[in-house]
Amino acid sequence: MSLLQGVLSQVLSWTGLCQVLLVVGKGLGAVVAAWTVKLLVRHAWYTHRLSCFSKPHANSWLLGHLGQMQSTEEGLLQVDDLVQKYTHSCSWFLGPFYHLVRLFHPDYVKPLLMAPASITMKDELIYGHLRPWLGQSLLISNGEEWSRKRRLLTPAFHFDILKNYVAKFNTSTNTMHDKWRGLVATGQTNIEMFDHVTLMTLDSLLQCAFSYNSNCQQSSSEYVLAIVELSDLIIDRRQKILHHWDWIYWKTQQGKRFKKALSIVHRFTREVVQKRRALISQPRETETDFPEAQKRKKDFVDIILLSKDEDGQGLTDEEIQAEANTFMLAGHDTTASAICWTLYNLARHEDYQEKCRQEVMDLMEGRDKHQIEWEDLSSLPFTTMCIRESLRLHSPVQAVTRKYTQDMALPEDRTVPKGAICLVSIYGTHHHPAVWTDPHEFNPLRFDPANAEGQAPHAFIPFSSGPRNCIGQKFALAELRVVVALTLLRFRLTPGVNPELGSSPGEVRRLPQLVLRAEGGLWLQLEKLQDE
Ligand code: HEM
């Protein structure tokens, strides 16, 4: 090749490259332009369709209420203001991406929560980030897939199964109380509740779901640490809008930590399910070689493994793993939050605390051991009223979101267009002054059956309501009663001091995350009562 030819071919190849880049650039520009136009048209369409709802002041026509929703005490006070001002609902949008209707009044909440599951969809804004962890599980799936799973999983929450768990709730609570006794003996009476109670609910859930004794209350467990890490990272991701896109998130430090914790959690559930499948498929005569399997009462994994639909089909191993992961997530933080806030409310109301304690002491009279049995749970009416009032005042889940595959009619001729996100505010409904007298007061007598008559349906929805309500609510209420009853038998509670805030006893700043927590923790003072 002559020098001239070489130079020519070089120039041509550069020109070719430039031309390719130009074409690619133009193509990319066209795609971005088309995407932007589509986004803006969609934005205009939703803005128009949602004009039947009042719209609180927005930052701009394009960014809307982006950055105005806060997961803090101020965020909850903002909901109180919205409820005061707009009474039933208002529209809200987060940039041109997400269009929401926020709903606070039971009359508006009811048609949405009671809608058939076939037209109800879980939206990606809240639930999408859970998918890598939970897969297509009950909490996230929709339509026919959801309904088959709900049918297959319902037997796992039957009374006959739940009964067996009460002994496990007692054991996990006893372990926690042993730790508390140890702390009190060394003079540490001001105790942060969430740390202790979360480990306790994880401990009991691991026993109920997998018959797995993790000892996580006494020594650290890799699996439990990974669950806590995943829950924290989900909240962090929700709050950073750029992290909502997978292709950005998986490259961040948080995304990498998420993947690492995920592999620990998934490995654990995979191994449990595979081992149990192998055990269950053993021929009957050899089962005697496994006395452990015979002695053990059935846990969630057993029930789900044996569950079959109308066509005799069960769930695959992957599906069972997804459900087991979901129970662990949906069951531990929520129940821990409910327990902590109930103890907090009783610590602030000595009279109610004493009345509950008396009720439990009457129940235990003549017994030589403090053990709450399944049959005892219905003999704690006042304690149950206090638990329900606490679930109203400090509901663990603040809101649920839904989308619908068709337009949804609401009172006063308002319509939620299909595809818009409905953010049903459990907090707003539970603090609605038109529904509850003195909504910010702790008053368990509201739940006295004698006073319940006037209560609006759908005014009390801590477990949501309708077809997609909480499948674990009876499990949670049983655990709550056992933990609260045993705690009051053994300890007197008074408001504690948050050492970080240096606040006065009982003062807290609520922290709505995946569940309702308290900034810097929830601190109580414990005084040990006489031993059993
Ligand atoms: C006090 C404790 C609890 C509270 C306040 C609570 C609250 C809720 C709420 C509000 C929902 C509706 C979520 C939504 O629509 O997006 C829900 C669903 C669910 N909960 Fe619970 N929950 C609690 C305990 C539990 C427990 C102990 C379990 C399991 C062991 C559990 C498992 C589930 C599952 C699987 C769903 C999805 C149900 C479905 O879509 O069919 N929950 N829970």
TrEMBL record:
Keyword Endoplasmic reticulum: yes
Reaction(s) catalysed by this chain's protein: androst-4-ene-3,17-dione + 3 reduced [NADPH--hemoprotein reductase] + 3 O2 = estrone + formate + 3 oxidized [NADPH--hemoprotein reductase] + 4 H2O + 4 H(+); testosterone + 3 reduced [NADPH--hemoprotein reductase] + 3 O2 = 17beta-estradiol + formate + 3 oxidized [NADPH--hemoprotein reductase] + 4 H2O + 4 H(+)
Cited PANTHER family: CYTOCHROME P450 FAMILY 4 (PTHR24291), CYTOCHROME P450 FAMILY 4 SUBFAMILY F MEMBER 11 (PTHR24291:SF210)
Highest taxon, organism lineage: Eukaryota
GO cellular component: endoplasmic reticulum membrane
Cross-referenced InterPro entries: Cyt_P450 (IPR001128), Cyt_P450_CS (IPR017972), Cyt_P450_E_grp-IV (IPR002403), Cyt_P450_sf (IPR036396), Cytochrome_P450_Monoox (IPR050196)
Origin organism lineage: Eukaryota, Metazoa, Chordata, Craniata, Vertebrata
Keyword Cytoplasm annotated: no
Residues the record lists as binding heme: C470
Similarity comment: Belongs to the cytochrome P450 family.
Protein's UniProt name: Cytochrome P450 4f3-like protein
Protein's cellular compartments: Endoplasmic reticulum membrane
Molecular function per GO: aromatase activity; heme binding; iron ion binding
Keywords, ordered alphabetically: Endoplasmic reticulum, Heme, Iron, Membrane, Metal-binding, Monooxygenase, Oxidoreductase
Record function comment: Catalyzes the formation of aromatic C18 estrogens from C19 androgens.
Cofactor(s) the record lists: heme
